[in-house]
Amino acid sequence: MTLRYMPDAGRLYGPEYARDPQAVYAELRARHGAVAPVEIAPGVEAHLVIGYRAALDVLTNAGGFWSKNSGAWQARLPETPETGGVIAMLGYRPNALFSDGAEHARYRKVIADCFQQIQPHKLRQLVTEVSDSLIGRFATKGEADLVADFARLIPARVFNLLFGRPDSDSEGLVQALSDMMEADGETGARGSEAFSRYIGELIQAKHAQRGDDLTSWFMDHPAMLRTDELAETLVLVTAATYDPMANLISNTISRMVSDDRYYSSLTNGALSTYDALMEALRAEPAMANYGPYFTLQPVHFHGTWIQPAELVLVSYAAANTEPTGIPEELRSDGGAYLGFGAGSHRCPASDPAVLIAMTAIERLTSHLCDLELTVPRDELSWRPGPFHRALAHLPVRFTPIRPDQPGESPWAMRPPSSSIPSAPTSPARSADYATSAPWSS
Ligand code: HEM
């Protein structure tokens, strides 16, 4: 879909963009100002919002003409092999991310209420156990790819348990999600099928027997989601968790092990893991440009005319790194700026997300305190794609930990499957990481 006045759109796909997205944003900024024409796949154009003030205007719905519903835009987009991946990410679905007003508030309340049930100290314990069991798999080897061996596995395993499934199911979920991310159509389709099956079986199991877990809380929430809405909510939570969490964890580690200010914090605490997370959220936000919005009427916005059914993408990455300096009063989230979005669609799980990332990274760096990259950071490879800032690999080396070493080595910890009661739907589990639901009292 070619937008009528965008002859010199910047490219947000391909290896050049993946290598240095900030160079592309800088050029767009110089040529167009706060809103720039871009192509996110061959023939699929969008307005990229790269100014911080403009980004906030969209996210907080200044003027009241912004919508998240992608239906009208999608209807104009031809279905071709090039547009398939874009539609998978942006096509309308009845969930919080693509809805407005009362519908959005209903979906969002289910997610926000249920996430509030998770007690932080129990979540920390769960992430500690999952992290330690993963670290135990490679600690003796002296080298690892922290994307494949650690960052991607953390969210899948943690959320599989939070959904109320035994840890043994997590391998299947990990495989399905990683297949879904493959560009190769056949592998992607296989992953997609396996993921649908996982969600279907999860719902079936919880219909048969509730537990104290996210899925059961979603089901019993007073909003009374229909089964299709429940499935969409579980899909959204998994999708919103898997890639952003993995990217946040790996982007942060890559900064910590290649920057002296953080490197020394691994041993003597110069700057904390929290500082590194905030810096990664600001300068390299995991959901780099994944802020889709649409206008309800023609609007002249920060110097650009935008028509209904045209795609507008908020670039958290470009806005956060605007070189002119962002006024103090417009900042959100302390150091993270727009890394978790802003306004009514702001990430409802930013606190658990930070807690999960921080716990996982601290376990890793406390066990393997001399981690170092095997290649310079500027030679790391990044996954192409317009929406995320995602390392393809994070190769590191470290002094192997011998199993006979004294102290609390990772493999001496109980694996998560044994610390979570084996019958995940049993009432005994309620004391594990949950408080009782406020709507049930
Ligand atoms: C615990 C893991 C996470 C869960 C369950 C989660 C869940 C969600 C959900 C359900 C939404 C849609 C909210 C709505 O439309 O009202 C959302 C939005 C968002 N999330 Fe998260 N998220 C997680 C982690 C992350 C991470 C790690 C990042 C970034 C590093 C992130 C960044 C965002 C952003 C930028 C938005 C706003 C999107 C927009 O404006 O359209 N999230 N998240």
From TrEMBL:
<feature type="region of interest" description="Disordered">
    <location>
        <begin position="402"/>
        <end position="441"/>
    </location>
</feature>
<feature type="compositionally biased region" description="Low complexity">
    <location>
        <begin position="415"/>
        <end position="431"/>
    </location>
</feature>
<dbReference type="InterPro" id="IPR017972">
    <property type="entry name" value="Cyt_P450_CS"/>
</dbReference>
<dbReference type="InterPro" id="IPR036396">
    <property type="entry name" value="Cyt_P450_sf"/>
</dbReference>
<protein>
    <submittedName>
        <fullName>Cytochrome P450</fullName>
    </submittedName>
</protein>
<dbReference type="InterPro" id="IPR002397">
    <property type="entry name" value="Cyt_P450_B"/>
</dbReference>
<comment type="similarity">
    <text>Belongs to the cytochrome P450 family.</text>
</comment>
